[in-house]
Amino acid sequence: MTWTPDKPIVSLRNVRKSFGDFEVLKGISFDVMKGEVICIIGPSGSGKSTLIRCINALNDIQEGSITLEGQEVHDPKLDKLALRRKVGMVFQQYNLFPHKTALQNVMMAPVLVLRQDKAEVEKRARSLMAKVRLSGKEDSYPGELSGGQQQRVAIARSLAMNPDVMLFDEVTAALDPETVKEVLVTIKALAEEGMTCILVTHEMGFAREVADHIYFTDRGVVVEHGPPAEFFANPKDPRTREFLDQVL
Amino acid sequence: MQSVEDFFLWLYEAHGINLTIFSDSWDRARFLAGILTTIELSVVCIVLSVVIGIVGVWLQGTRARAPRMAVAAYIAFFRGTPPLVQMYFFYFAVDRALSSLLGVSGGLVSNFGWAVISLSFFAGAFNVEIFRAGMSSVPGATIEAAEALAYTRFQIYRHVTLPLALRASLPALNSNLVNLVKTTTVAYAIAVPETLYVANQIWSDEYNVVEMMNVVWVTYLILVGILVWMMHAWEKNMRIPGYGAAR
Ligand SMILES: Nc1ncnc2c1ncn2[C@@H]1O[C@H](COP(=O)(O)OP(=O)(O)O)[C@@H](O)[C@H]1O
Ligand SMILES: [Mg+2]
After folding, report:
1. Average pLDDT of the segment spanning A95-99
2. Taking every annotated instance into account, which residue ranges of this chain make up the domain ABC transporter (chain A) (predicted)?
């Protein structure tokens, strides 16, 4: 079975995940088409990070299925590293390598993991730094950059691998209000270029603006979902309404 | 050289301070050889003990139970027993057992070799613990970022965990290596002609215990001083702008 772009690039079917006896995901299903941007919103502790981490196999699952380009992510025979080469991930706390400069952070994975030519990678890394509007900061260490700048380096670091899908887990949650925007602008540009994005976010305005589809999760289930216009204008479930009242 | 020798001969005649290592070329040669042996022993043991530390911590991180148990037993043994006893154990017991096992006569490894082996294992046991503490200071989230970028376990170890753990380990490593250099004197007990051993030979021949004791103090202060200076230079060189001390 080969995957073609008319089929979902990421597909979750009845995904269940427990930590010990504690079931965090209780049967989650959704599809993402290539080039789509979906936003996952929901109260803290509802399992959003867990969900997103299952997609690149940082977490395992107990039941159900997750496929990426038609391949079962949790097939024990699957080469996890091959999967992760196709999926970029950006974290809330940036998680840059503190002992490497910004440029080195961006270059490392293509050189080490993909064994690409160093000079060619450097060229691409410099243009990625420009793309996230950090030209001139190539030789700075993460500790010398602001949170917003670090997060944009982290985005460039992921993009350097030329992923097919990007995962963003509350990437602006640790930032000052002033720097949130610079990161959101970067993500928006990416989405407009046609990158498939799965975002967990608390930025409702941003979700409304960039998402093709919104999923509201609570206590491990998708409570409600829909295109942003519909979802925000006309939330049906009382839990969704309560949540939106709190965050809007 | 002649004038230096004359000065120390005069010092002996006028003030009774008998520094034969300056006034006598034979004593000077054997004392310098002793210092060189100490340096050689220190350098080889430093390198090997650091390698043991790195390998040990790697084995501790594996899933298989056997290597983890072996490393734990190794650490318990070498940290919990005196280095002198360890050296005797290798020199007298292990050497004999291995020789008879392999049918070799006259000993398998030289005195110097056994000193290297026992001191490296001794300091290595502490290095495993030091590096393990350094490793646990590396945030799991940083490692996870490398995992998400499809790094292999070895690439994560080599390019992320180890460089960060090493930086965190340097202060403790520094004091363990200083300790190692001082502990090389234990090799005296199996007649490795290191600084203390040759000093003893000299003061037995020349009856200048007080002078040689002072020479030995100063020699170790200088040797340890050089090591501390190099370690600090290394620490400084490894420092990352905006990272470490400030956090
Ligand atoms: N590694 C883990 N071990 C045990 N429980 C966990 C672990 N990770 C997350 N959880 C629990 O799973 C639930 C969902 O967490 P998370 O996915 O981080 O939620 P969210 O991102 O929506 O805030 C929380 O109750 C959390 O305590
Ligand atoms: Mg979360």
Report:
1. 97
2. 10-244
Of A56, A82, A112, the CB nearest to B148: A56
CA distance linking residue B11 with residue A42, whole number of Å: 87
A44 touches ligand 1 (CB under 6 Å): yes
Residue A73, φ and ψ in degrees, nearest 5? -65, -35
Does B153 touch chain A if contact means CB atoms closer than 8 Å?
no
Spatial contact of B142 and B164, defined as CB atoms under 8 Å apart: yes
Half-sphere exposure of A71 (CA within 13 A, CB side): 17
Ligand 1 contact via A50 beta carbon (within 6 Å): yes
Q: Are A216 and A173 in contact (CB under 8 A)?
A: no
pTM of the full predicted structure? 0.83
Domains and CATH numbers, chain A: 10-246 (3.40.50.300)
Look at residue A134 and give its three-state secondary structure. Answer: coil
Cβ within 8 Å of residue B180, ≥6 positions away? B42, B45, B46, B49, B119, B122, B123
Domains and CATH numbers, chain B: 4-235 (1.10.3720.10)
Residues of A in contact with B242 (CB under 8 A): 141-145
A233 and A247 Cβ atoms separated by less than 8 Å? no
Question: Percentage of chain A surpassing pLDDT 70?
Answer: 100
Q: Which residues of B102-125 are buried (b: 16+ CB within 10 A; e: fewer)?
A: eeeeeebbebbbbbbbbbbbbbbb
**Ligand 1 touching residue A49 (CB < 6 A):** yes
Question: Which residue from B minimizes the CA distance to A110?
Answer: B149
Min distance A32 CA to chain B CA atoms (Å): 20
Cα–Cα distance measured from residue B24 to residue B7, given in angstroms and rounded to the nearest whole number: 12
* Pick from B148, B160, B241: CB nearest A97: B160
- Taking CB atoms and an 8 Å cutoff, what residues of chain A touch B159? 97, 108, 112
Which of A99, A108, A113 faces B240 most closely, judged by CB atoms?
A99
- Given a contact cutoff of 8 angstroms between Cβ atoms, the answer to whether B31 and B24 are in contact is no
Tell me: the pLDDT tens digits for A37-61? Answer: 999 999 999 999 999 999 999 999 9
Phi and psi, residue A55, nearest 5°: -70, -35
